Amino acid sequence: MNPDASLITALVERWRPETSTFHLPCGEITITLEDVVTLSGLAIDGDAVVVDIPDEEWSAICLRLLGRVPYDLVGGVAVVRIVWLRVEFSHLPEDASQEVT
What we know:
alpha+beta; Aminotransferase-like plant mobile domain-containing protein; AminoTfrase-like_pln_mobile; MAIN-like
């Protein structure tokens, strides 16, 4: 997917953080959880995943579960960005094992 710079700029200009809405000529709109599901493909049903893991262990966990560590996983910030996941895992290698697929 190639982002449309003009569209992104237009949306940024119309975003109102105090109400978490976009102000458009047709009216005010907001992004719903359903929109996030449609765009990201993430599941929203079931229990939330919340864990208490010491900051210094996140790199080891990412390496064990993902096989690599996000470049911006520094300073104890335990965030794996969806953009990074998409870039790193959007294409399977030709010789991917059944476990990987």
